[in-house]
């Protein structure tokens, strides 16, 4: 069955080019009305222009779709609120939010300025917070919402020179993990995309041949699935060059140590058991960890917690 978005309104941030542009075009092709948001600045976040967003809207309209351009800076809450209000005024609902806008200020940790660090957090993390917050009540009332945050292998696994970016990209995962719990009873689902694509952001970092394989169009199907009606929830979907995979944060089963062993030396002595991957699991909420530890402690001490 073809997955479509007829009657749905989508906001895609940073949709003037690269991945966001591809997401917006494909959503519109499949029936969604799309807010094409883009500040239109340079890769490092400086400057602004409405040109790129307007060009994407023209492209969507030429193909028979519906779209509106928006120049809000996602790091500015008032501008984000005005963007969502404009979408509501024109189309009366917001069903899909793809938090995609992003910038880079790469430098090794000690060489980068704290201003750059803050700016990168503001755009990626606070930008996702602002856009999600501005749509949240609307989605709650509709009892329908599909939200994607864009993370990165730099956040999940680290990348030299990207402390600011990696911190922000892991921050959005923390936001998702909690919001899936708060949104569950309103049919608001939230997922994360970890893309790898040849765009302005990655230009010059890889050979031309590789760049050509990593098209945004190979990533976009992942986003479209994550914002579909039958989407998964709380998934980190990795996509690039036609490969798709899921990233998970797992915790080892671990082991309980006797009170005498609860010392740094005891931990060193049991390191193999503590880190043993056998039985490791992706926990679904913070309290599951506490529950697991209390169960082990009760068993170890031979007591009941009832
Ligand atoms: P891009 O540089 O081609 O596009 C990003 C867009 O966001 C630009 O059009 C820019 O004008 C817009 N933007 C930047 N700051 C904004 C702001 N404050 N408000 C509104 N719009 C703003 O980059 P690309 O590669 O398409 O990246 C899209 C997302 O994917 C970003 O969040 C990026 O961090 C993430 N990502 C990309 C990867 C890649 O391999 N290209 C890898 C991992 C994550």
Automatic annotation (TrEMBL):
Q: Which Pfam families does the protein's record reference?
A: adh_short
Q: What domain of life? A: Bacteria
Say if the entry is tagged with keyword Lyase. Answer: no
Give the UniProt keywords, A-Z.
Answer: Oxidoreductase
Q: Ketoreductase domain spans which residues?
A: 8-199
SUPFAM superfamilies attached to this UniProt entry: NAD(P)-binding Rossmann-fold domains
Q: Which SMART domains match?
A: PKS_KR
The keyword Thylakoid belongs to this UniProt entry's keyword annotation = no
Matching entries from PANTHER family are given as: DEHYDROGENASES, SHORT CHAIN, SCP2 DOMAIN-CONTAINING PROTEIN
Protein family membership: Belongs to the short-chain dehydrogenases/reductases (SDR) family.
Protein name in the entry: SDR family NAD(P)-dependent oxidoreductase
């Amino acid at each position: 069955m073809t997955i479509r978005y007829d009657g749905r309104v989508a906001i895609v941030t940073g949709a003037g080019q690269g991945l966001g542009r591809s997401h917006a075009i494909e959503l519109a092709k499949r029936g969604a009305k799309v807010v094409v948001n883009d500040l239109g600045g340079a890769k490092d976040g400086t400057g602004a222009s409405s040109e790129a967003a307007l060009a994407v809207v023209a492209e969507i309209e030429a193909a028979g779709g519906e779209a509106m351009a928006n120049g809000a800076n996602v790091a500015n809450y008032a501008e984000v609120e005005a963007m969502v209000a404009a979408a509501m005024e024109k189309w009366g609902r917001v069903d899909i939010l793809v938090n995609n806008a992003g910038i880079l200020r790469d430098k090794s940790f000690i060489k980068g300025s704290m201003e750059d660090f803050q700016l990168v957090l503001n755009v990626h993390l606070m930008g996702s917070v602002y856009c999600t917050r501005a749509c949240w009540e609307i989605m709650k009332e509709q009892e329908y919402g599909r939200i994607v945050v864009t993370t990165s292998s730099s956040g999940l696994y680290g990348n030299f020179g990207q402390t600011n970016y990696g911190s922000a990209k892991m921050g959005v995962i923390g936001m998702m993990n909690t919001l899936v719990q708060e949104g569950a009873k309103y049919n608001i689902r939230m997922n994360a995309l970890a893309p790898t694509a040849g765009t302005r952001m990655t230009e010059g970092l890889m050979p031309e041949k590789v760049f050509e394989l990593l098209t945004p169009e190979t990533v976009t199907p992942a986003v479209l699935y994550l914002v579909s009606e039958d989407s998964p929830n709380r998934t980190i979907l990795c996509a690039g060059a036609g490969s798709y995979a899921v990233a998970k944060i797992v915790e080892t089963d671990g082991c309980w140590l006797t009170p005498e062993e609860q010392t740094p030396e005891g931990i060193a002595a049991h390191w193999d058991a503590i880190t043993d991957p056998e039985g490791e699991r992706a926990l679904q909420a913070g309290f599951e960890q506490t529950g697991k530890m209390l169960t082990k402690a009760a068993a170890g001490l031979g007591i009941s917690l009832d």
